[in-house]
Amino acid sequence: MMLSLSTVSYRVVKYMALFTISVAAFQSSDMPGKDRKLPRRYTETITSGSGEKSSFEMVLIPGGTFMMGSPKGELGRKDDEEPQHEVRVDPFYLCTTETTLELFLAYYQETVSAEKDFFAAEQARKNTEQSREDVDAITGPTPVYGDLTMGYEEKHPAIGMTWHNAVTFCKWLSRKTGRVPALRGPREYRLPTEAEWEYACRAGSANIYGVGSDPDRLADFAWYDATADSETSEVGKKKPNAWGLYDMLGNVREWVYDFYSPQAYRQAAKKDPTVNPKGPKTGEVHAARGGDYSSSIEELRCASRAFEEKWWRSGDPQIPKSKWWLPEMDFIGFRIARSTNTNNQNARKQNN
Amino acid sequence: MSEITQKSTSRREFLKSTGRIAAASALAAGVVPSIYAGENNTIKVALVGCGGRGTGAASDALSVKNGPIKLVALADVFQRRLDNSYKNLVRGHARQVDIPRDRQFLGFDGYKKAMDCLDKGDVVILGTPPAFRWVHFTYAIRKGLNVFMEKPITVDGPTTRKFLKLAEESVRKNLKVGVGLMSRHSRALEELAKRVHDGEIGNIILQRGYRMAGRSATTGPKPENMSELLYQIQRFHSFLWASGGMYSDYYIHIIDHLGWMKNAWPVKAQALGGRHYNGDSVDQNFDHYAVEYTYSDGTTFNFDGRAMTGCQSIYSSYLHCTKGMAIASKSGDCGMPSSLFKGQTPVRSDMIWQSKVSREESNPYQNEWNDLIDAIRRDKPYNEAKRGAEASLVSSMGRMAAHTGQIITYDQILNCEHEMAPGLDKLTMDSPAPLQAGSDGKYPVPQPGILKDREY
Q1: Alpha-carbon distance A297 to A228, whole Å?
Q2: Measured between alpha carbons, how far is B182 from B180 in angstroms, rounded to an integer?
Q3: Which of B215, B315, B362 sits opposite A147 (nearest CB)?
Q4: A136, A176, B240, B365: most buried, per Cβ within 10 A?
Q5: Could you give the 3-state DSSP secondary structure of residue A335?
Q6: Interface contacts A/B by beta carbons within 8 Å
Q7: Chain B residues with beta carbon closer than 8 angstroms to that of A120
Q8: Edge-to-edge, what's the strand order for the sheet holding A64-68?
């Protein structure tokens, strides 16, 4: 907290004045009353094709405003984290854990396409074109090259999927749970935006790791190079952050919705404040946040950004590279989010 | 014992005549320096077999950073594969791809035309199904080309015998030959091999290898608008003549690197296997295999393969030794990290070493190309053909043991008379397919205990 206070910017001062909030932090959540009708948390259970049940828990993240990016002087800060800028985020639900292998295997086994040769691929493409709006016809991943668990148990995070695969999982899950409005709606399961992710990671705090600024405390909250055995852990084994979210830092990196651009914050900062930003409209690769089991402490800062790098494809010896899999990459996973009803209007107003 | 016909060539004689290590024989032969690419130092590359893996290998070739290298010709028997490969390679390496239409060759003789675009010392990539490897390698040797060939490189005894002779010839001509058994270029496995060979955990007494994952290598019936021959080539994982089947194509990496760790090839195999869920698929594979290989010192190597969705997945390899154990591939064909443990259980507290590989050298598919091109430019002995043929043969040995239900020795598989697809060097678009369906429209499958000296 000391470090944060020492770096309060003029923008923060302006913000504090504007809302006349008498706390010495540069972010706040909406008052609880606003989201009164929404359940604080709920459990979703799905039954796989073979009859096995798996559950996950979604927790309501209150809407609010925060400073995205890192302040000047934060140890380990990189250029793509600046400028620190004010962002407003509507309430949304976020899963308390990273998506598990158990859940991902249920998806894989229900949707995997039987063959990947080009006749089958062609047929699948035709099917997709014919039924683009038909949520019952999700074209699932091609068979994984080898073992998608990479030897991990089912309560460990799902790993090695491309961003596209993670997004397809969300579509499947929305259908599976009936959370599919007639038209593409805001209540489907989806990836969190990069802003939502960082907001949830900070959990109302203004410190470096969201659970404090003291690296020594991180061992209680995160699997990273100092605490992990060069591999992922079962999800939810460390302490959660203030909003009940486990493993936001470490374990696996988490895909977020946004394309990655090192300039993204410079663009976003032109608005004051930026409301529900979704990142650049186009891009080559997506952002993945939170660091992983092998990360150094700098990569575990809430503000630290990462993105798909070329070597993430190095376990795939084919060209074109798989649209679905990042073979051998056991450090990349994701966490699911879902919008609430209350932000329909804001979601539509959302601009970049 | 099986009823396999024995020929006079024994394994020992083969080893004696071909030399223990190809590199050593190349040195011993007093080789002449190779020439690459005429007056300048640009290496020209041609790709024969433009599927996903061949195209990936071409991309890796063009990513080698030690001098100018460009791709000048493509060959395949499917127009669409040619087109897609070209498109994707241009996308990734526009400035290094120089392949006008008249250097994109369609048809069974396309390999000759593509290699004719090269000069002595250039490189041809053989990325077709393994059945064609000896045909294309024969021509590459005649043209004095260096070669990168995808694995496996043989599918049965007769093609292995041919290949071992070709391998000797390629060594005599000082050709550099890389085989896509990339475990051998994993920096983690290289260090593991050194530590194991130095006796850090004693002598190997048991090896275990697994590739057990979802259903694979299946195929539906032939589409109407396609010839039987092209259909079987396109679905090569499903047909034993084309690829050695799922067993050879999927399991060879772990078989290869465990043989490397042992510094020997198994001398015999006995095996279980069957087809439990073949459903509508018309492929020739079993969907599960359990093979026990035995080395000449009596120690064993167990390989389990299973292609059943929903069952426990295991895809990794292990060594158990007199003073500890090792994880060779943690996950996948050669997935890092490799590690050593002082007990027989891989627990963290007993770990005595774990591989650490720099990001630059973490991709074995790129390493194998960096190593090959470096050997070409600096004229270092480099020929993996013999070793690749042996790894392919040992794979066939386990497969045949499962498919026949017999004990199959190294000498038996090497001297086996059943050539699954003779005459591939004379194939045209109009040729009949090497495998014919029965009157019920189904392709012959292995019958353990009934067919003992051939797999179908």
Answers
A1: 12
A2: 5
A3: B315
A4: B240
A5: coil
A6: 95
A7: 220
A8: A28-29, A64-68, A85-89, A274-275
Q: How confident is the model at residue A26 (pLDDT cuts 50, 70, 90)?
A: very low
* Yes or no, beta carbons of A316 and B56 under 8 Å apart: yes
d(CA B276, CA B288): 8
The residue among B74, B311, B278 whose CA lies nearest residue B212 is B311
Contact A147, A307 (CB under 8 A): no
Whole-angstrom distance, CA of residue A214 vs CA of residue B199: 45
Residue B438 exposed, middle or buried by CB count within 10 Å (0-12, 13-18, 19+) = exposed
CA angle B130/B131/B134 to nearest 5° reads: 90
Helices and strands (DSSP H and E) totals, chain B: 14, 15
Per-residue confidence at A271, pLDDT binned at 50, 70, 90? confident
Residue the block writes with tokens 């402490």: A297
pLDDT for the residue A134: 43
DSSP letter for each residue of A91-156: -EEEESSPPBHHHHHHHHHHH--S--SHHHHHHHHHHHHHTTT-TT----PPPPSS-TTTT--TTS
Q: What's the gap in Å between the CA of B2 and the closest CA on chain A?
A: 33
Average pLDDT over residues A123-148: 63
Cα(B337)–Cα(B331) distance, integer angstroms = 9
What is the reported pLDDT for A179?
Answer: 83
- The CB density around residue A180, as the number of other CB atoms within 10 Å, is 18
- What is the predicted pLDDT for the residue at B96? 97
Mark the ranges of chain B whose per-residue pLDDT is less than 50. Answer: 1-39
CB B256 within 8 A of CB B189: no
Residue A149 Cα, gap to closest chain B Cα (Å): 7
Contacts of B262 (CB under 8 A, 6+ apart): B204, B207, B295, B299, B301
Q: Following DSSP, what letter does each residue of A156-211 receive, concatenated?
A: SBP-SB-HHHHHHHHHHHHHHTT---SSS-TTSEEPPPHHHHHHHHHTT--SSSSS
> Tokens representing A36?
């009164």
Query: Residue A252: pLDDT above 80?
Result: yes
* CA–CA separation, B413 and A244 (whole Å): 61
Torsion sign, CA atoms A337, A343, A349, A350: negative
- Would you tell me which residues 358-417 of chain B have a C-beta closer than 8 angstroms to some C-beta of chain A? 359, 362-363, 365-366
Percent of chain A with pLDDT over 90: 67
Strand partners, A322: none
Chain A: residue whose CA lies nearest to B347:
A229
Q: Is A310:A159 a contact under the CB 8 Å cutoff?
A: no
Q: Which residues of A touch B92 (CB under 8 A)?
A: 319
Residue-level length of chain B:
456
| Terminal C-alpha separation, chain A | 31
Residues paired with B272 in a beta bridge:
B290
Q: What are the tens digits of pLDDT across the range A47-78? A: 987 788 999 999 999 999 999 999 999 999 99
Provide the pLDDT confidence category of residue A247 given band limits of 50, 70 and 90.
very high
C-beta atoms of A328 and B335 within 8 A: yes
Mutate which of A111, A113, A147, A232 to disrupt the B interface (most B C-beta within 10 Å)? A147
Whether chain A has a CB inside 8 Å of the CB on B211: the answer is: yes
Q: Which residues of A touch B (CB under 8 A)?
A: 50, 109, 112, 114-115, 117-120, 143-151, 229-230, 311, 314-320, 327-328, 330
φ, ψ at B255 (rounded to 5°): -60, -45
